[in-house]
Amino acid sequence: MSIQEIVSLLNEVRAENILLLCHQNADPDALCSASVFSKLLRRVIKGVNVKIASPEGVNKLSKVLLSRFSIEVEVSKPDFEAADAIFLLDTNTIQQLGEWSEEIKRTDKPIIVIDHHASHPVTESLADICISKEDSSSTCEIIFNFFRCLDLQPSLEEATLLFLGIAFDTKHFILANSETFKAVGYLVEIGVNPREALQLLTLPMDVSERIARLKAGQRLTLTRIKDWIIVFSHVGSYQASAARALIDLGAHVAIVSGKKGDQVQVSLRSSQEFYKKTGIHLGNDLARPLGEYMNGMGGGHSTSAGMDGVGDLDTVVKYSIKILKSKLKC
Ligand SMILES: [Mn+2]
User: Which class does domain 208-327 fall in?
Assistant: First the structure.
């Protein structure tokens, strides 16, 4: 499946109005890929009208990009009836479209998916064309390759947006492969300034977040289990940011709680090294049982998880240590 097939489908249905959808809370990869793709379509199909919409708005970093670049995104429900073709960008399941997913199920207009996550069977069955390239770092990298296929060159602004999407999804190139670096090299040759562009992906931290992080450091208690350094702390807000900060300070696992009445909210983070060497999945192995134990719910990813429950901070500490000790066979 290629860009040529997309263009011929759009010509076949004489598409005049095209709708590009991002996932909820669109991140820079979703937003930048949609923006650059809209410009590419306007170049390839003369007179076409392309709209970008993102259910429930865009995320914090994307908001910074919206203020910096000329990108128009609708956050209220667009006119699905008026669209001759609908694209889903960086969107793996239609659930990621929130309430708008009903429109996708209902429509008889062509649906085209462009994504870099493993394709979901339901999304595949709804799509007329499904380009899901799991080996691409980002949707922006796929859009970049469309330019190559069409023998077109991105403008400097387009190149910058593609660079930003790729940088964001690869965690500033930590997850990049050789194809990604080739694409990035090309974009930099067009004139993208990596240092300036990357600066746009760092959110300024407000005072209350800084204080929460510093207080978390001040209040931390440290436990060693085998060679692993586990730290606990508590702050009134910004638990997730504080937990990340404690990992940066040197902890292998950071568990930061916040208490509101008898409710306790916990953010858990671990280093990649901890996950790789112990196989302990923070979401499944720690946050979930902790949530059950504390009459709440917990879960998340391998090195980043959260839990909401009822009880005190002491219970969080004791039960977490108990689970970790048993998992680490102490
Ligand atoms: Mn992405």
Answer: alpha beta
